[in-house]
Amino acid sequence: MSVRPPLDPAYDLLHQQARHPLDALFSPRSVAVIGASERQGSVGRTLLWNLISNPFGGTVYPVNPKRTNVLGIRTWPSISAIPEPVDLAVIVTPAPTVPAVIRECADAGVKGAIIISAGFKETGVEGALLEQEVLREARRGRMRIIGPNCLGLMRPTTGLNATFAGAMARPGNVAFISQSGALLTAILDWSQRETVGFSAFVSLGSMLDVGWGDLIDYLGNDPRTRSILLYMESIGDARAFLSAAREVALQKPIIVIKAGRTEQAAKAAASHTGTLAGSDEVLTAAFRRAGVLRVDSIADLFHMAEVLAKQPRPEGRRLTLVTNAGGPGVLATDALVSGGGELAKPSDKTLSALNGFLPPQWSHSNPVDILGDADPERYAKALEAAGADENSDGLLVILTPQDMTEPTQTADRLKPYARLGKPVLASWMGGSEVAAGERILNDAGIPTFGYPDTAARIFNYMWRYSYYLSALYETPTLAEESTGNAREQARAFIDAARAEGRTLLTEYESKQLLAAYGIATVETRLAATEDEAVSQADALGYPVVVKLHSRTISHKTDVGGVRLNLTSASQVREAFSGIQRTLHGLGQAESFHGVTVQPMVRLDGYELIVGSSLDAQFGPVLLFGAGGILVEVFQDRALGLPPLNTTLARRLMERTLIYKALQGVRGRPPVDLAALEKLLVRFSKLVVEQRLIKEVDINPLLASAERLLALDARVVLHEPGVPESSLPPLAIHPYPHQYEGRLRTRDGTELIVRPIRPEDEPKMEAFHHALSEQSVFMRYAGMMRLDQRVAHERLARICFIDYAREMALLAVSPTPEGGEIVGVGRLTRLQGTGDGEFAMLISDRMQYQGLGTEMLQRLVAIGREWGLERIVADILSRNTPMQRVCRKLGFDIIADPDPTEEMVRAVKVLV
């Protein structure tokens, strides 16, 4: 047996992974209870007792300056008096004392604190000021804090119980995080009765520091956690939550119940869009975008955790019901269909198979009623036949205990069908008579439900969850690059209006702004006088539309400012003077600035609305739906977060009722949906790039088989005094145009350098096809088969990145087909640390041309911009070319003293 030589201190410092900051909270080696008490019933006593009665492998230090011992354990007068390093401080002293306690903890090197104490921002201004003082001290000491005003934290798998709850949770693989401590204790009590176990049990409290994103990141990397359940009252840092959730959701289910569903936006905005975008709808859209499943009840929270742990996700919404009674099948059908699911239509092959062994009286359809005298064998055969049907995405087996029914034996006979490749659920209806069968099914991995409508509701959650996740990494089609200088053209209209002190663009300006982003608008001409109006109408050709042109009035129809289908010059003159008279009569004569003249467009398509308004938490929110003057009446709309790609644009459309009509109904040809997707992508780009826009809507957008045409548009700006830097950030980090550029290699080849996009998956596949085995071995420190490298799931994750977490730069050689990738450099933040890790892969034909050096130099610059402390990479010791590039850019190459170690670490300290 070889003995590893001792590490050089410099190597140890640079090579070893830093301990995650939240390890101080979840895996402390020592805990100080500040405010430990002997008083019966006090929080300080319960906390100390929970820590010492559930050994977690560390030391507990009670801190109380007024006592020499608590519960027979020596106390310390202060945290600074403790002779050993302390990882975690649990604080239960009164709120006014907490800032000084945190200051002392920071000075003593404590890295984590749980503040149980209440009396902070929930009490008003003074409490909020206390919180800010606490946070300042914590930041100074680089401490992480859970709370204040929380129950604490449990880690049942290790025995850590840093809470004042009355019991310790059972160990398991579900992490439960709650903002409500009271709810947490109720769930804890329930879990003891239902024997549900947890990998972590966390009360977040006020989220002064540690929030949802931090915990999702940490638990996403926790091998003991298989699913993450959230009880949420407020989202806090929206971008951090969405970034972490989207990263973790494909590996582990994230299931949330959010309190306050019915709360509407506090104040309706001026546009149609603003009046429709209620805050809870926005939150639901955000969950969907991140692959988070939202449920409506605490029971469903745990149902879904169980089901997703035991059964695969369905590929679609079609469910097959197998039952021995008609009534429960009808109940399940109602629940399924009302929730958006569908009954699977049995194939002819399946019907033939079922006819072969079922009595003639069976239902001959779905639900598959196998009759009340069904024995275990009939159940098994029916389930096998139905499960083999390609038209079905999942199965629900229902049993009612009739005289001839054998619930236990039937359950035992169905055990082999727990793994059919599609979800299998069961509803064993009854009480004690079916209890043994339920246990058999649950132990076999088939989740059971007391009622079939509950099971159908859970299946609806399952297919919806699959639908959300598929959108995360479904490869979009390539949207056209914007032509010209759209951003600058649009900004000119905005700056001009703000210079005049205006917050409203005129319809003419609004349409010009849309046109800059490639969104077709109906031709619109300005006229300041009757004669000009007639002249413009004559030039356009009759019939025409005359509309009020005003820099201050928002909705023209509300003041009689729209005149349609004008067929002569005299009608145009009357429209001009009539609009002017109406405003004069309303006392708004100063708001008349002339009219616009437009051709009368025949409404031979569908009227849609496309819009955006601002949400306080998530920033700009997009809206798509049925438009026209009755938009608020029908409320057929869907919300989404920018930026969009074509896949996300289609998913946005699919969530509306009008989407079905757009595909063609009653003999009408379908709308060009691909063009509509690209229009939505361009619109989202406008919203992302023009942050000074507060609200914008196109209503109506005329959509037909021949065209997509914006007939009217409104743009509301932020007040002139509002700086762009003060606006709520985009919830999803937009495409970083600032990293686009060009470079020239040693042989004179000119390449485009730009961040990666989801649409790049086909190019990435071609790139991997062209790599030699040597290049693959050097990059991945071993061989990876081509089919593994180009698998859709892998390439989609490579291309569809969160720019807030990582940056992948492509070197692209221009080609008539749109470009060939010849190099990829990636910088990834190591969450919870100040480090970033880089990786590099250059095509064989472009190696030794200086491309790797140039790409790494750009990644280092991005790392500095992000505020990273170090950039690191593990490199094969035989990969001397990559090591040479690193040394050239100031990296230290640290070799392991063990001669058998095949990797070296490249480290560049940035601060």
Task: Explain what you see.
- The chain has 911 residues and is α/β, with parallel strands linked by helices.
- It has 31 helices and 38 strands.
- The strands form seven sheets. It has an eight-stranded mixed beta sheet, sandwiched between helices.
- Strand 10, helix 6 and strand 11 form a beta-alpha-beta unit.
- Helix 7 runs parallel beside helix 8 and helix 12 runs parallel beside helix 17.
- The longest helix is centred in the middle third of the chain and has 21 residues.
- The two termini are 41 Å apart.
- The N terminus is likely disordered.
Output the keywords.
alpha/beta; 38 strands; eight-stranded mixed β-sheet; 911 residues; seven-stranded mixed β-sheet; Acyl_CoA_acyltransferase; nucleotide-binding; ligase activity; ligase
Largest sheet: 8 strands, mixed
Helical residue percent band: 25-40%
Total number of helices: 31
Shape: globular
| Rg over CA atoms | 32 Å
β-strand amount: 15-25%
Structural class: alpha/beta
CA(first)-CA(last) distance: 41 Å
What's the count of strands?
A: 38
Largest beta sheet: what is the strand line-up? 31-32-33-34-35-36-38-37
Mean pLDDT comes to 89
Given as residue ranges, the uncertain stretches (5+ residues, pLDDT < 50) are 1-17, 263-278
Domain N-acetyltransferase: 751-908
InterPro entries: Acyl-CoA_Synth/Transferase (IPR051538), Acyl_CoA_acyltransferase (IPR016181), ATP-grasp (IPR011761), ATP_grasp_subdomain_1 (IPR013815), CoA-bd (IPR003781), GNAT_dom (IPR000182), Ligase_CoA_dom (IPR043938), NAD(P)-bd_dom_sf (IPR036291)
Organism: Stigmatella ashevillensis
GO molecular function: ligase activity
